[in-house]
Write a structure and sequence with these properties.
Blueprint: E1 10-13, H1 19-31, E2 36-38, H2 50-55, E3 63-66, E4 69-72, H3 74-85, H4 96-125, H5 134-154, H6 168-182, H7 192-201, H8 205-210
Parallel strand pairs: 1-2
Antiparallel strand pairs: 1-3, 3-4
Helix pairs in contact: 1-3, 1-6, 4-5, 4-6
The structure holds glutathione.
Glutathione binds next to helix 1 and helix 3.
Length: 216
């Protein structure tokens, strides 16, 4: 009987309501990886302390620690985990063109989508109702609608973002999609293919465990 190689001691630093932490938690679930999570960031603090800054000089979450190996940047962490522990290349394909299709959405989500969404998330979810600037928030929702239209078009004839197989592209964009579909009180365009993709990925146990809880 072949023995499974021992898993390293794995710690993920970061609060569970951070979109960037959620991607990594979901990725671990898809790969069957165990971890200990330590709350850090925002009201939990810790991320400006010297010990944390020595691991991650950005003072941001998440940070992954495996034995003495330390890694930050959520999409990089997901890529690392998928390559190291997903030998069948399920989440991050070995074929370079297939892989590039995944990378494209990882980069797009963090460079084009995330920076626009941030102000909406804070202004809507983390601001008291009577202090919300709804006209400004609806303007951001319009900009995000234009971006989701690109995603919707990409899903034409594809079950998942990079083709027929679920991949890191679905995790990294799916974490943002969960928030988009959870936003209420906004004028949002609706997209059929986007909604059915989100429905498909939201049935995965990793999504249910790490993303389905209320937006906070
Ligand atoms: N590009 C970085 C961004 C990390 C980031 O900005 N994380 C946010 C949470 S989503 C954070 O650390 N905010 C400060 C805090 O929580 O105190 C990544 O993807 O890991």
């Amino acid at each position: 009987m072949s023995e499974q190689p021992a898993q390293p001691a794995r710690t993920i630093w970061g609060r569970a309501n951070s979109v960037n932490v959620q991607k990594v938690l979901w990725c671990c679930h898809e790969l069957g990886l165990e971890f200990t999570r330590i709350d850090a960031g925002w009201h939990f603090g810790r991320n400006r302390e010297p010990e944390y800054l020595a691991m991650n000089p950005n003072g941001r979450v998440p940070t992954l620690v495996e034995d003495n190996f330390i890694l930050w940047e959520s999409n990089t962490i997901c890529r690392y985990l998928a390559q190291k522990y997903g030998p069948d290349s399920r989440l991050y394909p070995g074929d370079l063109r297939q892989r590039a299709m995944v990378d494209k959405w990882l980069d797009w989500s963090i460079s084009s989508y995330g920076p626009v969404e941030r102000d909406l998330y804070w202004g809507l979810i983390r601001t008291a109702r009577d202090e919300r600037d709804m006209p400004a928030l609806n303007k951001i929702a319009d900009r995000l609608g234009v971006l989701w239209e690109i995603v919707d078009a990409n899903l034409s004839g594809r079950r998942f973002m990079a083709g027929e197989e679920f991949s890191l592209a679905d995790i990294c964009l799916g974490a943002y999609a969960r928030r988009w579909f959870g936003f209420v009180d906004l004028e949002k365009p609706s997209f059929v293919k986007l909604a059915s993709w989100h429905d498909r990925i939201s049935r995965r146990p990793g999504y249910r465990l790490h993303l389905a809880h209320p937006l906070t």
